[in-house]
Amino acid sequence: MGTYDILAIHGDTYTGVQFTIYSNSSPLNLSGAAIRMYIRKASKQGTIIKKLAIGTGITITNGAGGQFQIDSFLIDFPAWMYYYDIEFTISGIISTYIQGKFEVLQDVTTDN
């Protein structure tokens, strides 16, 4: 499992990120995979702040090549330290390949 920490600013649009998943040095075929990501506040068991899945924030960009992306979205949740992981279900096998911190900084240029 890899770690990828994300830094974003409250009120900004997170521009997304693309990943390639490998298994035994070859791209893992993601065709037909279910992929989901939860972002939780303050701890890995904290309140779920955002849920992403294929069609709702995650896109497989090259299934045979093991590539998918987290799509862009508005960071509309408060400045705080969050945690996330990305879970894959392929042929009934559930695996978590990516996890990390999702830190949201307070914006300065805001009307709130």
Q: What does this 3D model show about the protein?
A:
The protein is an all-beta fold. The chain has a single domain, classed as Immunoglobulins (Immunoglobulin-like, Sandwich), CATH 2.60.40. It is built from no helices and 13 strands. The protein has strands at 2-3, 6-9, 13-14, 17-20, 22-23, 26-27, 34-41, 48-54, 57-62, 67-70, 73-74, 80-90, 93-105. Strands 1, 2, 4, 7, 8, 9, 10, 12 and 13 form a nine-stranded mixed β-sheet that branches. A two-stranded antiparallel ribbon has the order 3-11. A two-stranded antiparallel ribbon has the order 5-6. The model has no long low-confidence stretch (mean pLDDT 96).
Which features characterize this protein?
nine-stranded mixed beta sheet, two-stranded antiparallel ribbon, mainly beta, 112 residues
Please give a quick description of this structure.
This protein has 112 residues and is mainly β. The chain has one domain (2-105): Immunoglobulins (Immunoglobulin-like), CATH 2.60.40.
Question: What's the overall geometry?
Answer: elongated
Q: Give the SSE string.
A: EEEEEEEEEEEEE
Spell out the CATH superfamily. Immunoglobulins
Q: Report the uncertain regions.
A: none
Q: Total number of helical segments?
A: 0
CATH architecture: Sandwich
